[in-house]
Amino acid sequence: MARTQAERTAGTREALFAATIDCLVEVGYANTTTREVAQRAGVSRGAQTHHFPTKTDLVLGAIEHLFGQQAMRYRAAFADLPPAERTLERAVGLLWEIVSGPTYPAVLEVTVAARTDPALRVVVHGMATVLEQTVVGLLTELFPGFADDKLARTIIDLGFTMVQGAAVSSYAGYGDPERTIRLTRALAALITPDTVGFLRGTLDAIDP
Predict the structure, then answer these.
(1) Going by C-beta distance under 8 Å and a sequence separation of 6 or more, which residues neighbour residue 108?
(2) pTM of this prediction exceeds 0.90
């Protein structure tokens, strides 16, 4: 059966996204070109520019798509855990599985590139804000005890900082990222419904 136009469009975009992530991982942001991506994706240059006129459009589209896939994978993996194991400590472990995976270097490439590219930086910051809101929503959904957005955001900021730092160490080949993750998981295990009140009080004291 012939594919519909919508299916062909979706297939083209998927191929472009996958090729973009591959390029970012293999050759870095600076060496990723729309021509190379189109060639890897088996898509004509005209089709590529029709969907994504610029490199920035293409790269950000691919990263946003990757984030969406990772969020769905994360949610599904957490849902598959037995209820008794749905803890913050396990949540950190699942996050590390994603961040230490083969596609996450693409995210780091774009994050670093945004430092010296003002146009890219504006869009990346906007996308990061959306990502934070999504993760905060997920955290408060999975852990009702963190219904306080301020507490949820603080925990996410701390957790992401440690996990992403471990990822940078892992990809760069220095430090002991596994030790960092063990420490992060151990700290996460201390955050329970019984300690949430103490954490909220401590946060209010240092960040009124």
Answers:
(1) 164, 167, 168, 171
(2) no
Q: Are the CB atoms for 106 and 113 separated by under 8 Å?
A: no
Would 108 be classed as within a structural domain?
yes
pLDDT in tens, 42-86: 999 999 999 999 999 999 899 989 988 888 888 888 889 898 888
> Which residues span the domain enclosing 112?
60-206
| 11 is a domain residue | no
Query: Which alpha helices (DSSP H) does the chain contain, by range?
Result: 5-31, 34-41, 45-51, 55-79, 88-99, 104-113, 118-142, 149-172, 177-189, 196-206
Q: Rounded to whole angstroms, how far apart are CA atoms 188 and 87?
A: 8
Give me 27's structure tokens: 């050759």
**CATH at residue 75:** 1.10.357
